[in-house]
From TrEMBL:
<dbReference type="InterPro" id="IPR002933">
    <property type="entry name" value="Peptidase_M20"/>
</dbReference>
<dbReference type="Pfam" id="PF07687">
    <property type="entry name" value="M20_dimer"/>
</dbReference>
<dbReference type="InterPro" id="IPR050072">
    <property type="entry name" value="Peptidase_M20A"/>
</dbReference>
<dbReference type="InterPro" id="IPR036264">
    <property type="entry name" value="Bact_exopeptidase_dim_dom"/>
</dbReference>
<dbReference type="InterPro" id="IPR011650">
    <property type="entry name" value="Peptidase_M20_dimer"/>
</dbReference>
<dbReference type="Pfam" id="PF01546">
    <property type="entry name" value="Peptidase_M20"/>
</dbReference>
<keyword id="KW-0479">Metal-binding</keyword>
<feature type="domain" description="Peptidase M20 dimerisation">
    <location>
        <begin position="189"/>
        <end position="285"/>
    </location>
</feature>
<protein>
    <submittedName>
        <fullName>M20/M25/M40 family metallo-hydrolase</fullName>
    </submittedName>
</protein>
<keyword id="KW-0378">Hydrolase</keyword>
<dbReference type="InterPro" id="IPR017150">
    <property type="entry name" value="Pept_M20_glutamate_carboxypep"/>
</dbReference>
Amino acid sequence: MRDTLELLHRRVEERYPSYVAELAALVAIDSGSGDRAGVEAVGDRVATLLSGLGMTVSRPLCVAAGAADGVPAVVGRWRGTGRLRVLLVGHLDTVFAAGTAAARPYAERDGRATGPGVSDDKGGLLAGVFALDALRHLGWDDFAAVTFVGVPDEEVGSPGSRELLARLAAEHDVALCLECAREDGSVVIGRKGVVDVVLEVRGRSAHAGVEPERGVNAAVVAAGLAVDLAALNGRWPDVTVNVGVLRGGERPNVVPARACLVADVRAASPASYDEAVAAVHGLAERSSTGGATVTVELRAPAPPWAPSEASRRVAAAAGDVAARLGLDAGFALTGGAADANLLAADGLAVLDGLGPVGGDDHSLSEWLDLGSVVPRVTLLAGLMVELGAADRVTSVMSGASASRQDASRHS
């Protein structure tokens, strides 16, 4: 394995200037989740890179429920001679508005690259591409299938990509997700579950001065709900509830008939996740009195990813490869949800945070540690080789089979 890692490292090092050039090119493309043209342009560039590696590339359309049209994902496939089926997962979209790439262009300073999406997830996407390049250069084919997918809507909960991800999950044993490593270099072994809870309040309008008693003030009901939702914090040690949106009324002299709240609910364990969502429903029911009605909608739910035995076996393999490379790569749980949550819920063995080291995601100061690119891309490529080895593959596949059975029982 040591000789293999040296060869992979050498190839990644040789290709580092190309990685940086491609990173600058991708960051220069605005690709906020709602920017179809920009997301598609990023996908076009990634598809070209995958085609250059000899992958069979398709562009399946991802359409969210109720949407008039969708945005194409990128799916590249290799077939090999081994047993393990590996899925690499990244995303093409960012959280940034159109014009951000021009206002805050790609830059390098003191060993860091900055720019919109440089870490989340353009640096991670390219880590997957260049790991595959190193494996192709090595001539590695000790796998049954390797599939690379870049989805177009991860930053809004992957509403259009869920069906595609579920299909791919059924076809693979292991998912290696390309979000960047944590700031301390940790790889991600678990993520909190998250759901956006939308509460619509309906009351009755009336003239605020002449006949306010005929109205039912939806804004007041919503304000009380916001306080009650905030009070859920602390009920469970791993649950957070944040009322991020509160809207109601249009004019001060009208009793408002409608109001809306949107709360971000997160939890680390499936039990507390379910209990917290049930508690929100309970608050909505109790607030539906005195002429007011409150409806609840759960948008883009992503269940908690608590590491399974199968995921821990993949993490152990990653730890072994990191040690051989002299990397201090720990493992961490994180509060942010991602496509890893959905794949774990479908029963795959999952490991995330396999891109280079980055930080300050979703902010003006988002950065990528350029010095981490070569070692982390080598780690990803070396992990795939390690997972395909005979003494690992049986253990990982048996763990993946048990995870699927467990996911089936809880579905």
